[in-house]
Amino acid sequence: MAHDVASIASHFDLGGEPVAVEPITTGHINDTYVLTTVSGGRAARYVLQRINHHVFKDPPRVMENVLRVTRHVRARLGQVDPLLAERQLRVIPTQSNEGCYRDGDGNFWRAYTYVEKAVTYDTVPSTSLAREAARMFGLFQRLLCDLPAPPLHETIPGFHDTPRRLERFYQVLRTDALNRAGHAATEIDFVLENAAICAILPDLAGKGEFPTRTVHNDTKINNVMLDETTGTGVCIIDLDTVMPGSSVHDFGDLVRTASCPAAEDERDLSRVAIDAGLFEALVRGFAEETRRWFTATERDHLVFGAKIITFEQMIRFLTDHLAGDLYYKVHREGHNLDRTRTQMKLVQSIIEQEESLNGFVQRAYCE
Questions:
Q1: For a Cys-Cys bond, which of 14, 173, 213, 220 suits 257, CB 3.0-4.6 Å?
Q2: CA atoms within 13 A on the CB side of 264
Q3: Which CATH number is correct for 127-366, 3.40.50.300, 3.20.20.210, 3.20.20.80, 3.90.1200.10?
Q4: Is 170 exposed, middle or buried (0-12, 13-18, 19+ CB in 10 A)?
Q5: Are 39 and 16 in contact (CB under 8 A)?
Q6: Dihedral sign, CA of 223, 206, 340, 333?
C-alpha cells in the first residue's frame, strides 16, 4: 500500500518543508522512510515510520515507553557525556504534542531525528566492533537500571515467554492449514526433541532466582548504531520491545545475531556456526558494563540464554512458516523456513561448544 508520506509528515513538528523521501527496505516489521526537510537553507533528516499495529496492538502505549526510555537515556548520558547524549534517539512530537499520529486509514506513525554519521551492520565485520556493540547493549541496560516507576508497558505480551511460543507452535502444527509441515519434518522433529529446555528459565524466574530488568528484548546487532569513522557506540535503536524482561535473553539474542558471520536467512548452512572469537568479544564487551551489578545466576546462564533464545527464534520462524508468513516479512518462497534452518544450525553449534563458551563467560566476569 502506498502512503502519502509528505502529507503524513506535515502532522509532525519537523520545522522544515519536506524535499525528499527515501524508503528503507530493511527490517521485518515496520515501514520506514528517511525524510529530508529544508528550513532557512539548512537541510535536516528525520526517520518517519509506520508502526505495525498488527504486531504492536497499542501503538500509543509503545510510544509512551519509547518517550520514557529515550528521555531517561539522554538525561543519564548528559551527566557524563553530553556530546553522546545529543546523538541519542529523540522522538519528534506531532503538532498536537503526541508521540504518534494516526492517519485516516488507522495507521500509526512516528518520527525521530536521524542519527547522522552512524552506521549499523547486519553481520559483524570484526571482533572489535562486536565487543563495542555488546558493550552498548550492556550500557543501555545499565542506564535503565534506575528508570523510575511505574514499569514500562508490556508492548507484546509474553514476547519471550518460550513455553507460550512452543504452545503456539503445537497449535499451528496440529492444524497445518497450508500443508507445509511435510516440507519441514526435520525442523519439526528438532523442536519436539528439545522442547524440554523451554521451561528452564521460567522455572528459575518462578523461584525468584532471576531479577526482572528493563531490557531491549530484540538485541540484533543491527539495532546498535556505531560511529562511521571511529566504530565507537552511538546509540541503541528499535525500542518498540523495550519493557520488563531478562538480561539473559538480551545477551542471548545478541549472540544469536552477532556471533555468526552468516546472515539470518543464509541458505548455505555450512557457513552457519557460532564463531568462538566473536562470542568472546561479545561477552567481554557485555561484561564491561554489567559485571558490577549482574547476579551470579544471570552470569551463569548467559550461554544457556543464547541457546534458548535461538531455539525460541527457530520456533517463531517455523510457526510463522507453517501459519502462512503472517508475522515476518518474506521476500521469497520458503523464506521463513530458510530462517528456521539457520536458527536450528546455530542451536546445534551452541550445544557443541557449550563448555568452551561458558569458559569465556567465567573469564570475562572475573577480570
A1: 220
A2: 22
A3: 3.90.1200.10
A4: middle
A5: yes
A6: negative
Give the predicted TM-score (pTM) of the model.
0.91
In the chain, where the domains are located? 5-114, 127-366
CATH of domain 5-114: 3.30.200.20
Cα three-residue angle 147-152-158, rounded to 5 degrees = 135
One-letter amino acid of 365: Y
| Sequential pLDDT tens for the chain (367 residues) | 567 888 899 999 997 888 888 887 665 566 889 999 998 888 999 999 999 888 899 999 999 999 999 999 999 999 999 999 999 999 999 999 999 999 999 999 999 999 999 999 888 889 999 999 999 999 999 999 999 999 999 999 999 999 999 999 999 999 999 999 999 999 999 999 999 999 999 999 999 988 999 999 999 999 999 999 999 999 999 999 999 999 999 999 999 989 998 988 999 999 999 999 999 999 999 999 999 999 999 999 999 999 999 999 999 999 999 999 998 889 999 999 999 999 999 999 999 999 999 999 999 999 7
d(CA 88, CA 83): 9
Q: Is 275 left (phi over 0), alpha (psi -120 to 50) or beta?
A: beta
